[in-house]
Amino acid sequence: MSINVLIADDHAVVRDGLKMILEAVEGIHVVAMAANGREAVAMAEEFRPDVVVMDVSMPLLNGIEAIRIICESLPKVNALVLSMHHTREHVHRAIQAGARGYILKEAAGSEVAAAVLAVMKGGRFFGRGVEKPLESRNGLRGEYLKSPLETLSQREREVLQLVAEGKTSAAIATILSLSPKSVETYRSRLMLKLGVANIPALVRFAMHHGITPAD
Q1: Which residue from 95, 94, 42 is spatially nearest to 70, judged by alpha carbons?
Q2: Contacts of 100 by beta carbon, 8 Å cutoff, 6+ apart
Q3: The predicted structure's pLDDT at residue 135
Q4: Contact at 8 Å (CB) between 160 and 147?
């Protein structure tokens, strides 16, 4: 069985390392590598991989939102999350977005190939140190503290990330194909919904919830 994989991570050394590990397994082929979430979405559309291995903290569009878009447009794709974050909120959001597995970066070297093979067989894979969501007869239901991100639309979450990355309204408008006025409206709506008074507070919120890296 041939398995085509797309790797998405904003660090070249991580992408290259994962490619080396995966292609050492017979039948696994890395067909594309992306450096940010928007690139990952475009490459998934172009290459139609069997599995996407996706980092969470990436510029322009974080991995969870990228997985959501990919799984909605390409439901046969099996998405795996690769992350430094392992809170209940992160795991729940990833599963809700469509991910079939979640592994920590610190264990990726020994687990990523096994995870790819597991999801290709129709299973799920949760690596060491990841708290597996509880299951019920209706499937994975995840016991977690509800995230305030769930009150936001996908577009609002996209704007939130770009604001937190320091992009101007004009730059955000170009990236999202919106007018600058629409971006300002989204920004105001975000502050109202999240109960924050200024942009620094929005940035802190985005970092706290893993929308953008805290470095």
Answers
A1: 42
A2: 78, 79, 80, 119, 123, 124, 125
A3: 52
A4: no
Longest CA pairwise span in the chain (Å): 54
> What global pTM score does this model have?
0.84
pLDDT block averages, 10 residues each, the chain of length 215? 94 94 95 96 97 93 95 96 83 91 87 94 91 54 60 90 92 94 93 89 86 67
Whole-angstrom distance, CA of residue 104 vs CA of residue 126: 9
Which 3 state secondary structure label does DSSP give 23? helix
Domain(s) of CATH 1.10.10.10: residues in the chain: 148-208
According to the CATH classification, is domain 3-140 in 3.40.1390.10? no
**Among candidate residues 35, 36, 32, the one with its CA nearest the CA of residue 52:** 32
pLDDT on residue 142: 45
| Burial 31-63, CB ≥16 within 10 A → b, else e | ebbbbbbbbbbebbeeeebbbbbbbbbbbbbbb
Is the CATH code 1.10.3720.10 the one for domain 148-208?
Answer: no
